[in-house]
Amino acid sequence: MTALLRYQCALLLRSHRWLPPLLLYVAFLGIGVRPSEPVLGSLGFAAAALLPTAAWLVRVCVTQEPDAARQCAAAAAAPWRVHLASLLTALLASATPALIATAVVTAVSDPYTAGRRAEVALGPAAVQGLVAALICVLLGTAGGALCNRPVLRGTAWTVPATVLVSFPLLFLPGSPARAAVTGLSEGSRTGAVVVPWPGLAGAAVLATCAWAGACALSARR
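and the corresponding structure tokens:
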């Protein structure tokens, strides 16, 4: 797995296909995050924008190899291992901007609630924002895994599905991502900092199930 992961990461870096989703995420931050705005609200926006970014990066990673090269790698290792390495590469590619954005947003934002009614401790706020960002990353990779090969094939299906899956994962009641982002938005008004550890566990379970299903299906095709 280590060799496969290095191979997939090298492919991603050299292809520069990571640039469009990353630039889109930076554009989202440029629009929605401004210096001296309440820190918790800004962290919520930064976390929410990661979900479609992660789903897009999954599509990039699972489609970046030519079919012949992927078949050679699958013959040398196993199809499910190759697919898992692609998903792990997407996870790493999504978690990196999550860490950077959380640090930057925390540094430039105002450590107060909306209206500066109460002070917010930056350390706990950063932890809450980072956990919310990781929840969105996990759910984004889960959605991306279910909307691309080997589950769905053909650009006419996979591209719209990858885009559209982000909305229910982010907005439907019961979604860990919605709960995490809502917690940050409410904390921006009340000053309460509550780290969504249960949401992180739930997102990890959902991502594991989605990944397992995709990897199992890849072994059959």
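(Above: one complete record from the training split.) The mean pLDDT is 93.
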